[in-house]
Each structure stands twice: as C-alpha cells, then as structure tokens.
Design brief:
The chain is an alpha+beta fold. It has twelve helices and 22 strands. It is globular, with a radius of gyration of 25 Å.
C-alpha cells in the first residue's frame, strides 16, 4: 500500500528525532564520570528498527560512520534475538569502532513488542588495559597488545546485567570506577532515548514514524546528490607523504594517494596507491577512513542536510585491503589519530581543487596529554587532556583560533579547574603563540600552547600532530608553524624527540610545554587588508616585526597605526617576487 506524504508531519518527526538524540546527549554529558565526557568526546545517535541511522545528536560529522559501520555487525549477530532490556557493548575496531578506547553502547527499543529503533552512544575512555596506559599508543605492533577487545556482546540481557562480563572488564582496566561510570552514563543516555522513542510512537504511531524515516533518508540522499552535482565533473588528485611509522624512525615516507571522481550526482573516493599497512599502530581501520571521507564531504553539503544513512549513499569509497587505510586483522590501530588528521587534510585539499572558492584549509590540533599514576591517597588515576588549534584560512575569511576542526564540531576544551580538581596536575599556562599562523589574505589559526605541571610521579604519553610537515597554505598562502614539546622549560629546557606518540616517566614537579601546530593561510599575504594586520598586532597575535616580514605592513610602534606610505612602498617592492612565486 502506497504511503501518503504529510510534509508537516515529516518535519515534526524530524525535529522529534533530533530532540531525542539531544536528550540522550544531555543524559550522557550530565552523568559521565571522566573529563573526556565533559570535553565532548562522545556521540549519540538513533537508528530505526532496520538498523538504518536516522539521526545524530551531540556528534561530530565524521562520527556517523561509526554508527553506520557498527549496525551490520550487530544485526548479523543478534538479528531476531533481541528483546526489551538488552544492552550491547563493543569496542572492536574490526566491527565499526575506530580504536579500542572508544566503547559503544547500543540498546534496542521496542514498542508494543515490535523492534522500532536502536539508541546508540559511544565515548572515548581514558584506559582500556593493554601494554600502554590509554590504549592508543602508536608503538604496539598487533591488536592483542592494545588492550581488552570487546566483540559485540550483551552487557544486559532482558534487563539483567552481565556481572561476569563487568567483573572481567574492570579487572583489566587501570581506572575501573571511572570506566564503569562512563559506561553507565552511556546506558542512561540510551535508556533516555528509548523512553522518548516510545513517547514518539505513542503520539504518531508506527506507520507515520516509519514512513517519515523513509522520507528523511531519501531527502538526505537527494540533498547530497545535489551538492555533488555542483562539483565540476572530472578527477581531482592529491598526494601526500606520511612520515611516522609509529616508532619515530628516520627516513619514513609512506605514500597517501587520493583520486576524487565526480560523475554527475555520485562521488568516488579512491585511495588506490596508498602505502601498505604499517607495523606500528598508526593504521586507520576502514570505519575511520570512511569517517574521514564523510566528515569532509559534509562540509560542502548544506548544513540542514541530516546526517543519516541517506547522506552516504552517493559516496563510493575504494580502499584496497592491507593498506594504511584498510589494514588486515590483527594490525594495531590504536595510534591512528595523526594519520587520520593527515587523511582529513588530503580530502580537503582534493575537494579544494574541485571547489576552490568554497573549501577551506582544514583545522589543526587534536593533540593529547595522557597522564597515569597514583594520587597521594594511593588511588589510581588516568587523565586525558585533548585540545585543538583552530581552522585554516578560508577562501573568504580568516581561520578561527582555538576551535576544533570542522569535522569535530562537538569537541570543546577541558577546563583547567576540572583537571586540577580531579587529577594531580596544574595547568601553568594556556594561550596563543604569536606570529605562528600561516600568513595569507585570510590567515590561518595560530598555534596554541599549554603547559602542565605534575604533582605526582607517573607515566605520560604526548600525542602530537604536525611534527615534520606543516599545514601548507592554499592559493598563495603560507604554511603554519609546526608543533613542539619541551620538558621543563627554563630549567632543563629539553626539546623532546619529534615523535607522534612519545612515552616518558615524569616526577613530581616536572613540566611539559606543548605547542599545537598552526594552520596555513589562504591567498597572497600581500593582499591582506592592513587594517586586519593591525588588529592582529593589537590583539597580540602578531608582532610589529612579523607584520612587516609576513605581510609587508609597517606599523608605527608609537601610534599603533598603519604607516600607509611605508606600507605601500614596501608592498610595491615585494609584489614582483610574490607574483613570481605564484
């Protein structure tokens, strides 16, 4: 029987679904135990009874791939065997998750004994056992070293908790109370979503709900196809080199090759030619590679397009098995983030060849300090502090300082007060590093520094992006500054090795000064309005000397004003060299 279409009802149901996933996110955020929950390293979503993703709540665009990739594994294992009160847990990178510290909770929702939806929540945990605290070091060589791998399992069955499974997990993680607290927060979020799903069905009935889901998925597909049709037909190539094998070895050059093919309303993303999987844990499982593609493409689609399963239908992804971006089990993947950020960069730069007036330079950051040990009272702790540098220069605007990249829309910064209250650490400083942004008509984001002081001895891991290759500019823009790490600045002032993942033991009183990479600028720096250069000088983001060197703008140090005569003369002297460089 053909369903009638009620546009008003569809719009109402769309917003009801959005509200459900947001309610779930609020429950997770309010009840989560770890600092990672408070910074937003989690996501919530909802699938219909067929397992099709129909809505995301508090989530970054790239995270929809996790949920889409997980559901076939869940349906294959539990299809037809689920009942009210069941709760599923998984952290398997070869079943949709992207590394084992990310733990997902999935709960089926029933209405009048009919399976009508799945509610989902995942978050990053500060530990998952294994060789290295945190579970995301690049120095593991197989998955068995990385921690406790949970295949798709029932944590609750018919409302009864699997205590044996819980006891086994807690015996293998370093901070068991925090681990369990975060899992219970996600369960609370899923149960909250289930309540709201039932209320939605009570209000509108299953027929209206299902037909609305069908329409919203089809609408998202049509809108995505329309965005792809705006790309001029053709092939757009971009290549890069990744320089870290997971161990900081010298002379590493692993190729990343991407070919985008726009053909009408479909987009093929082909990574054929990318290097073979690495021995270290830098590999991207296929779910993370797909997440990178989807998150990048979302940036060219209208913001009101729903991130559901319809969004991904026009996008074909080709990744040969056994490569860096689609490794074979049991390849280690825990330290995949630096490579993920690089592939994200490659995607944006290929898209920029197709749409130069629309696509910006992607953001920088995602650097991490992970600190584990014992507090003064003898209890164990595991702390993870993640922060970002900001967006790169855009075709029509500057980058934005101190925010997560575009595909990380839900991430924030952990307040220093929270870190200092929960863990034996002090944040001695946090701020911009002047003169580091990639110069351009529209400049990139600045580097941001953070300095931590440790009050207890412990084990530290620092994850750093952009240690060897800068964020290049576009359209004549200049690159941003590289990242750096210094142990005990001012005393030992020891510059640490340039490794993506660096492990070290610290003693009480030690300090680490970390600088996140800056992002590239967009357009010729000599085309930047001198007034904007002056504003950056007044905001202490740029020194007077750098204004002259990077932009050819002369600032009177006494008046704090542009010297227009000298600026015009200096720019005229430099302009031929600039044109030759372009």
């Amino acid at each position: 029987m053909e369903r009638t279409f009620d546009p008003i009802l569809v719009e109402v149901v769309k917003n009801e679904i959005a509200a459900i996933t947001e309610e779930m996110a609020i429950a997770v955020w309010k009840t989560g135990r770890s600092a990672m929950m408070k910074t937003g390293d989690f996501a919530t979503a909802m699938c219909d009874g067929q397992g099709r993703l129909i809505g995301q709540g508090y989530a970054a665009p790239f995270q929809l791939a996790f949920f889409i990739e997980m559901m076939p594994h869940i349906l294959k294992k539990f299809g037809g065997k689920l009942k009210p009160g069941d709760v599923i847990v998984t952290n398997d990178p070869y079943a949709g998750i992207t590394h084992m510290p990310d733990v997902a909770i999935i709960a089926p929702a029933f209405w009048k004994e009919k399976l009508v939806a799945f509610t989902l929540a995942y978050s990053h945990h500060t530990d998952i056992g294994g060789r290295f605290p945190g579970g995301f070091s690049s120095q593991c060589t197989e998955m068995y070293e990385e921690g406790l791998r949970l295949p798709t399992l029932k944590l609750y069955e018919g409302g009864v908790r699997n205590e044996a499974l819980i006891d086994t997990i807690l015996a293998n993680v370093r901070v068991s109370d925090e681990w369990l607290g975060d899992v219970e927060a996600k369960i609370a979020g899923c149960w909250r979503g289930e309540q709201e799903v039932k209320a939605l069905l009570d209000k509108y009935g299953v027929e209206a709900y299902q037909s609305s889901c069908d329409y919203l998925i089809d609408y998202s597909e049509r809108a995505t196809r329309a965005a792809i049709r705006a790309i001029p037909p053709g092939e757009y190539l971009y290549e890069d080199i990744f320089e870290d094998d997971g161990f900081g070895s010298d002379g590493i050059a692993m190729p990343l090759k991407l070919k985008l093919r726009a053909d009408g309303d479909t987009l093929t993303v082909d990574f054929t030619g990318t290097g073979p999987q690495a021995r270290g844990a830098i590999n991207l499982p296929i779910s993370m590679t797909k997440a990178t593609v989807y998150g990048s493409v979302k940036s060219i689609v209208s913001p009101d397009v729903l991130t559901n399963v319809g969004f991904v239908r026009p996008i074909n992804i080709v990744v040969p098995e056994g490569t860096l971006l689609n490794p074979r089990f049991p390849a280690a993947v825990g330290g995949r983030a630096p490579l993920f950020f690089r592939v994200f960069d490659v995607m944006y730069r290929a898209l920029a060849k197709a749409l130069p007036d629309r696509v910006p330079i992607p953001g920088e950051g995602g650097d991490v300090l992970h600190f584990t040990g014992q507090k003064a009272d003898g209890t164990n702790f595991a702390m993870m502090d993640i922060y970002f540098g900001g967006w790169g220069g855009r075709p029509m605007k500057d980058g934005i300082d101190g925010v997560a990249p575009m595909s990380f829309g839900s991430y924030g910064t952990i307040p220093a007060e929270l870190l200092e209250r929960e863990y034996p650490i002090v944040v001695d400083g946090f701020g911009y590093v002047p003169d580091t942004a990639g110069a351009g008509k529209h400049r990139g984001s600045l580097s941001i520094y953070k300095q931590w002081r440790f009050l207890q001895p412990g084990h530290v891991m620092v994850r750093t992006n952009r240690l060897l290759r800068p964020s290049d500019g576009m359209a004549g823009g200049k690159p941003g500054a590289l990242s750096t790490n210094i142990l005990n600045p001012g005393d030992e002032n020891q510059t640490l090795p340039r490794k993506a993942h660096m492990h070290m033991e610290v003693k009480a009183g030690d300090r680490i000064y970390h600088v996140i990479s800056a992002s590239g600028g967009h357009g010729d720096p000599l085309a930047r309005e001198p007034e904007k250069v002056l504003t950056d000088v007044r905001d202490e983001k740029l020194t007077i000397a750098a204004a002259r060197e990077q932009y050819g703008v002369v600032i009177d140090p006494n008046e704090f004003a542009v010297n227009w005569e000298q600026t015009t003369l200096l720019r005229q002297q430099r302009q031929p060299a600039s044109l030759a460089a372009d």
